[in-house]
Please model this.
Amino acid sequence: MFLGLAMGTTECVLLGMMAFDRYVAICNPLRYPIIMSKSSYVTMAIGSWFSGVANSAVQTAFVMRLPLCGNVINHFLCEILAVMKMACTDISGNEFLMVVATILFTLMPLFLIVVSYSLIISSILKIRSAEGRSRAFSTCSAHFTVVIIFYGTILFMYMKPKSKDTLNGDDLDATDKLISMFYGVVAPLMNPLIYSLRNKDVKEAVKNLKKRFLGK
Model:
């Protein structure tokens, strides 16, 4: 549970940081080397990981204090909501803590992403040449794809209508379990593939491998 929360929170904050990076690259390209220096990258990375570890440590500590009725979690993973549903006591304090954490580490990065891409799209539309617009869109296409996959599944899971039985019962819907697996496991596994395929060196390496394989 600690690792899952830490990784998920870090992913959300990193996506927000990367949206700002894309905004600077497209909207302020001449100032990019100054604003996004090596020290800035290191600070942003450390801040993202610290946010993830801190949020996870606090929430995990509070959940571990709960008396549980049973020892079987109705989930594929040790997911915090599934564990909290097993509590034999009032969990309003834990729920409030989760709401605060969601606002700080999920919605605020999402807000930063929305604002950044609004400014990016506005800037791109002002470019007159089609080639320039295409190049600008290509710059942020990989990050935007990851945002859609990661946040899209999260928003679908937590904002889709719940049936009365699901709301009143202790069981999680099977769809929720699968979706949590998607944004918690599948989406991170796809990140290296999505980002690396945008890299020219990686593309050339893949082409060379294909030539060698076909040649043999």
Observations:
- Residues 164-171 have pLDDT under 50 and may be disordered.
